[in-house]
Amino acid sequence: MGKPKDNSSERVIENRKARFEFAIGETLECGIQLLGFEVKSVREGKVSLGEGWVEARLEPLSMWLHGVNISEYGPAGPPRTSPTRTRKLLANKREILRFFKASQIKGNTLVPLKIYFKNGYAKLLVGVGAGRKKHDKREAIKERESKREIARATSKRV
Length: 158
What we know:
alpha+beta, Small Protein B, Chain: A, seven-stranded antiparallel sheet, 4 helices, 9 strands, 32% helix
């Protein structure tokens, strides 16, 4: 029997900008329908989630990932598709419906938060984000700075 693979070396690509720009509420882990060379690019970390967004549709009931740049994989040869093509997300019908309803509320949007591998499959963490105002962003920066100072002060004492 073979040894189980160690998945700790797999990359996790996070959309840190989304956590700053939006107040994230509910999240959903869903699969992504990728082509073979795209999977290899994701494994190498050649993904940009910053400009991406998710659309939930009723007819037909589905979720789509827009604007995420997955660079071409060099050894695969010349590019066959656009790096920012629309990709289908794989989720349960009830979950898609729940997220569709959440996205219809004014001020809410579906945001890609993280892309990673789980048991060999590419997964995307999608969150329902409510846009933050400028003063909310300033509060988040102040909070982050204060936590950093507290951690710095406690680490010097020990």
